[in-house]
Amino acid sequence: MLLRLVLSGFALFATGMLTVAEAQINKDDKWVLLGTRDVDLTLEKDTIDVTKAKGKFKGLRLQAKSGNIELSRVQVTYGNGAVHNEDRRIDLKSGERTKPIDLRGEERFVDSIGLVYKTQSGSTKKAVIEVWGVQSPDGARTARPVAGQIATKPTEAKPTEAKPGQVTAGGDVLFGTQKVGFGVDRDVIRVGANVGKFDRIRLRVLDNDIFIKELKVVYANGDPDTIAVNAEIKQNSRTEWLPLKGDRFINEIQMNYRSKPSFKGQARIEVLGEYAEGWLGPEGEGRKYNQGWVLLGSQSAGFIGFDSDTIPVGRNQGGFQRIRVTARERAITLNELRIVYASGQEQVVPVKTKVEADSTYGPVDLDGSKRAIKEIKARYRSRFIDASAKGKGNAVVEIWAQH
């Protein structure tokens, strides 16, 4: 009996990963045949090209369609260059298949499957092996980025005036900016789920040409999404809108790029997003999060004098009832709030109070009932003396509004 259990356990290990891994496969996921190969078992190695497979995959498996196959390694190469190795013995009898390989729940483009066989001789040296991939409906609809194909339009050679996290005059949200050197740069722009849901992003490039090796969005749930690869963007141009995988909260944007060596110097790259349809407005989905509070923008507060910042409110952001101000990292002195409504009317709130780090001033009720806001003007400064400050940097001031 004990011997039977040991042999059963070994057989399970030899043919694939533990069954518990398959719990990551959802009921709507489907297995797709990626490729079939006639195997010459007198050869040691083989590679199956699957770059023409449509969509992303969260796991793979092998099946011996005919003949017996013994493998010592399976190497999976993904579209982003990452490699996963299964260094273990896998014995497949005719008709058998492995359990899922590299099943992590993260969907990725697959370029190739490398196989290392135990060579055989005699009449059983021929076999047929199949490669299958499992993908979600979203993964099936995701197109592989096409190298070098990003449409662009000219843009004025002037930096966007908004600050990170702030809505621009055109209604986009500026996620962040970077200076790009002549070498290969790898930068991460943090976004954060509290900024809102987005359905597309775009880049503005100023001062010099750049070459994007890879542009990747990481969503709030950890899913990565490669948006562009191997694309050149000329100076003083902006890309077309690059669609995301549905309406998503963004955690960060990862960029791998370089600028063109020339007398022009470094390039400036700006990353912007557009709110998902239906996120803003009095009936928008944004009301379901943060008790209906929407982050309008964030600014860094200086130490000397009072900073006067203007935060434009994006398109469709009508029908707010109140606003509040939150200080992060360090306490601030909040001097004044000035709310400019879409009608042109202004509401002035003379504050002149201290707001501790990680605390909030407000909420401040708006004049009348729900009002459409054009912009908010605020005056504040970081406090020099603050024992609770996180480091020696400036305070970050967030302006929120509630529907």
Q: What key attributes describe this structure?
A:
single chain; 403 residues; mainly beta; nine-stranded antiparallel sheet; 5% helix; elongated; disordered N terminus
Task: Walk me through the structure.
With 403 residues, the chain is mostly beta strands. Helices cover 5% and strands 50% of the residues. The radius of gyration is 27 Å and the shape is elongated.
Q: Residue ranges: pLDDT <50 for 5 or more in a row?
A: 1-21
Termini separation comes to: 67 Å
Give the SSE string.
HEEEEEEEEHEEEEEEEEEEEEEEEEE
Q: Considering DSSP H and I runs of 4 or more, what fraction of the residues is helical?
A: under 10%
Number of strands: 25
Main sheet overview: 9 strands, antiparallel
Contiguous helical run count: 2
Roughly what is the average pLDDT, rounded to an integer?
A: 81
Query: Which overall shape is indicated by the principal axes computed on the Cα atoms?
Result: elongated
Oligomer: single chain
